[in-house]
Amino acid sequence: MQLKISLAAATLLSALCVQADDYVSFEYLQYDENKNRTSVSAPSLIINKDFGVDYTLNFSIVADAVSGASETYYDASSGASAIHSRGTNVSQNDVKYGNVEYDDNRVAGSLALTTRFDNRDELTVGLNRSNESDFYSTELSAEYMHYLDESKNQSVSFGLSYMANQILVQCSATGTGSCDTLSGGSEEETADTISTQVSFHQVLDSTSFTEAALFYMQEDGYLTNPYLNVVRDYNSGTAKIVGENRPDSRSIYGLSLKYAKAINDEFTTQASYRFYNDDWGINSHTIDTDLYYEPSSDWLIKVGLRYYTQSEADFFKFEKDYFRNQTYASSDLRLSNFDAVTYKSYVEYKFSDDFSYNISANFYDQSTDLSATYFMTGFKYKF
């Protein structure tokens, strides 16, 4: 179903450095949106293994079961799916915006190998693969981290990744009319993404550090959502329901800043800011704050608040502001102007030095009348 949900997993903060461990962890995510929209159940497994002091191998796998309903325009008189609602001379009274049901399953896996050199610089190479019924993605990545001083208080990282996507699109979604729209046939489309990032990390003192990063992404190919519709030519008692159409390229750039501070033995705080801009007309700002409380060596408690705001895409219109002859058109609310707040909480309890249990509860509230709750629970075993 080509569903992309980005959920910030809880990051357990170390004030100065991250020490590798041999461990296996299991997590279970339950994500639910309001109005009976998307629901996701996702168990995941992560295995991390050190080979001496110079190599670390990390493997993860996740299986998503996605169901619910996606909001789009459709022909209420036909009772057909969103794709087969498309056509001409639809009565204005039959143009409706609402839920179209779907369900899908996804399996995704990743493998990353970190190599440490004599000067303790690190090179991490990774492979990610994701399969859905109509969407297949393969990503290759590499990141090199170089220490700038002998004390290892300064470092710079360079990252590069390439993602190749294959999308199966029902023929009627392309608007080419090259095959029977009732046959259920599909055509294969492709899209590629190249991402780069440069980041600088500075330990300020024994209790704090800061990080700054610049990123750039280039997307090319089929970037349209084949399941979403728009309304054109809404006049004279009729209208046209057709598939949305997005540009076949997008350039993205931005920056991020992070600061972390251990206030005392019990409290640590972290704050970050991210700026995003693309040539579709969207720019966004994200402020993310977390407070960690460690009342004893066995307990870790985190609360956090994330604020996000974005402008709308140049080719976005919704409700009575319909389209006519514009080449690019979308009514996807994810491309609209909106604000969102996420309230975060996390608790971890260590039964022993080797075994711990965690649970988190989060609430997401968006100004477009979308809200969601998501819970995660799991355990981690060091071996």
Short précis:
With 383 residues, the protein is an all-beta fold. It contains one helix and 19 strands. The protein has one domain: monomeric porin ompg (Porin), CATH 2.40.160.
Short descriptors:
disordered N terminus; mainly beta; 19 strands; 1 helix; single chain; three-stranded antiparallel beta sheet; 16-stranded antiparallel β-barrel; Porin; 383 residues
How many strands in all?
19
**Could you say which structural class the secondary elements and strand pairing correspond to?**
mainly beta
Mean pLDDT: 89
Can you tell me the CATH class? Mainly Beta
> What percent of residues are in strands?
over 45%
Query: What's the overall geometry?
Result: elongated
The structural domain count equals 1
End-to-end gap: 38 Å
Annotated CATH architecture: Beta Barrel
What radius of gyration results from the CA coordinates?
Answer: 23 Å
| CATH H-level superfamily | monomeric porin ompg
Low-confidence stretches: 1-19, 173-183
- Share of helix, binned: under 10%
